[in-house]
Design goal:
There is one protein chain. The chain is α+β, with helices and mostly antiparallel strands. It is built from six helices and eleven strands. The strands form three sheets. A five-stranded antiparallel sheet has the order 6-11-10-9-8, covered by helices on one side. The chain is globular, with a radius of gyration of 21 Å.
Length: 251
């Protein structure tokens, strides 16, 4: 489960970094997710849906060989269909990362972009402690001198490539924290996947984006819509975001 946001020493010694936005580069020649999904064929789609259970979110895009690849995140697992060569033939491999039944949690976010909102680490470092009687130190802890600053939390970046960090950096700071936090302590082999598309209308630009991180113990997914009025800076963009976290089933 994500580390709770408390003021204990355990929750402050490590925090996720907040990344710079990399934009959403758009190639109009690339098929959208519905077109890529249809390219898979009915049999592959049915296997994906059967393994995923109740669908929470899905996305599909072309891989590096320009072949469709699809991912479905559902109540039973994170499922993916990828094109592989087996016995000299190209087939689709459908795999599932099973999730703990009934353990998925969700959280909604909204509001402004990352640059205009402080991160959890910023809020911790800038807070003014209320006036109260000094509390006794924890057993074995060194006494704090008058006027000394509280220990600064350290950041631990995940091992992700620059393109992935650029996409992640587009999200508001609290969403970036939600997505990364479960992986900070004991879940290092993190795999990222995402999908987005853009529509430009008379008064605004709309971007729909799905971003997923997965590893041996955790899966986090964000499904978001960003609306940016025409002629406004990115700091004026408004988000509607639904995030999910699910622990991977341990067998």
């Amino acid at each position: 489960m994500p580390v709770p946001r408390t003021e204990s020493h355990d929750s402050l010694d490590i925090v996720p970094p907040i990344h710079e936005p990399g934009g959403f580069p758009v190639d109009s020649s690339v098929p959208d997710r519905q077109q890529c999904w249809d390219m898979l064929g009915a049999g592959v789609r049915d296997r994906l849906l059967a393994k995923a259970g109740t669908v929470v979110e899905w996305w599909a895009r072309l891989d590096h060989d320009r072949r469709p690849r699809a991912t479905v995140f559902g109540s039973h697992g994170l499922c993916q269909a990828t094109s592989v060569i087996r016995n000299g033939k190209r087939v689709y491999l459908v795999e599932r990362l099973q999730l703990e039944p009934g353990a998925m949690t969700r959280q909604s976010f909204g509001g402004a972009s990352a640059k205009s909102r402080p991160s959890f680490a910023d809020r911790v470092l800038r807070r003014t402690p209320p006036e109260s009687r000094p509390r006794p130190p924890l057993p074995g802890a060194q006494p704090r001198l008058p006027g000394a600053q509280p220990p600064r939390p350290s950041t631990h970046p995940l091992d992700l490539d620059d393109d992935t960090l650029g996409i992640l950096g587009n999200f508001p700071a609290d969403v970036q924290e939600f997505l990364q936090r479960p992986f900070l302590r004991d879940d290092r082999r993190v795999v990222a996947d995402w999908y987005y598309y853009e529509t430009v209308e008379f008064a605004h630009q709309r971007v729909f984006v799905v971003f997923c991180l997965s590893a041996d113990r955790h899966v986090t997914v964000a499904s978001a819509t960003r609306i940016l009025p025409r002629g406004r800076s990115l700091q004026r963009a408004q988000w509607e975001i639904e995030c999910c976290h699910a622990p991977v089933r341990r067998t």
